[in-house]
Amino acid sequence: MTRDEARALIERLHEIWSTGDVESIQKVYARDFVAHMPKGWGKTESRDGHDGIRHAIERLRKAFPDWCEHIEDILIDGDKAAVRYFSTGTHLGAFEGRPASGRRLSVDELSIFRIERGLVVEQWCLNDDLAFGKQLRGEDLE
What are the chain's domains? Predict the structure, then answer.
């Protein structure tokens, strides 16, 4: 896979999360995809495989119907792509035990993706969970 093809694949992945186009999951993610999430998340629902990704997208977009992932940087080296991005959304549905607040949220994220056979097979993700939680609770970020 060329660098341009890898970049297009990663851009398409973020487009799926931004639009909720779960029908395109199999065009971007490998069937045996594995998500490595931050340790502080505890025992959350799996994001592995096509079903895990589909459920995660649907769950997120139910709470934040206008969720959008904005890519700031993509670095590609061999079979890996590192992405710095931020995600925005309006809290219009229950999420993690919190009722809809109508608040507009923004969260900084970093992900490293491993690509094999033209599909994303692994992801290591790190979010600014502290800022995200504060925004959910309506607290100042300062």
Answer: 3-137 (3.10.450.50)
